[in-house]
Amino acid sequence: MSPSGELSRFRVTLGLRAPADLAVYLFPGVQLQELLNRDIALLGDAEILWATRSPDPELQQQRLLSYMLLRRVLGSWLGVAPGSLSFELGGDKRLRLRDASRAPRFSLSRSQGLIALALAPVTVGVDVETWQSQAQAEQLLQVLHPDDQRLLSWLPPELKAREVTAAWTRKEASLKVLGTGLLRDPALDRVGSRVHPLAPQGVQVRQLRVPHSLGAEVAVGWAAD
């Protein structure tokens, strides 16, 4: 089936590959809770185990819903029933398909009821973050690369909060591609600006345009040739 209910869908061209090679979906998780209630039996042990590692019931529900959406989108891409897909936890503790020979790579992110999903033929990372408060943005700013700090520090407070949030999504998306997460010092690599994003060697990253009314930022990164 074609995935439904997404707020936005993006296509990103990867070099000479087809424009449909990388897709990013943004879903309103809160509005899709009924989907989880109806189809939760389709989820496998690996998904339920990973979701329930958190003691936070709300986070558990968001994770379970994101896995259900992943099943629906992957099933649509592969032309199979969502319930026929089988997942496992890899050695890196990431959820992955047992038979990934013809499946795209995927990445999930969740923030305040929003769920982002990216699919690509190469290693991919996506991050969604609702706009940080001015106080939160100031804290995040301190852990970015010094050049990024200088670029962002002069902005008016409200705009700074949004731009720091965007910068952080570029950081998270890049680190997901590297597979390190925040084990890699966030201050090591520049993230640049929306128009001229930067990423570590071997990674490309792009800031995506999402509806202003969502109060959120989304970035996607992928392994470069």
From TrEMBL:
Supply the Gene3D superfamilies for this chain.
Answer: 4'-phosphopantetheinyl transferase domain
Instruction: Tell me the protein's name.
Output: 4'-phosphopantetheinyl transferase superfamily protein
Write one Pfam family the protein is assigned to: ACPS
**Its domain of life?**
Bacteria
GO BP, one annotated term: lysine biosynthetic process via aminoadipic acid
What are the UniProt keywords, alphabetically? Transferase
The lineage is: Bacteria, Bacillati, Actinomycetota, Actinomycetes, Mycobacteriales
Q: Ubl conjugation: is it a keyword of this entry?
A: no
Residue stretches making up the 4'-phosphopantetheinyl transferase domain: 124-187
Which InterPro entries did the record assign? Answer: 4-PPantetheinyl_Trfase_dom, 4-PPantetheinyl_Trfase_dom_sf, P-Pant_transferase_sf
Source organism of the structure: Corynebacterium occultum
For this chain, the family text in UniProt reads: Belongs to the P-Pant transferase superfamily. Gsp/Sfp/HetI/AcpT family.
Entry's Gene Ontology cellular component terms: cytosol
Glycoprotein in keyword set? no
Recorded GO molecular functions are: holo-[acyl-carrier-protein] synthase activity; magnesium ion binding
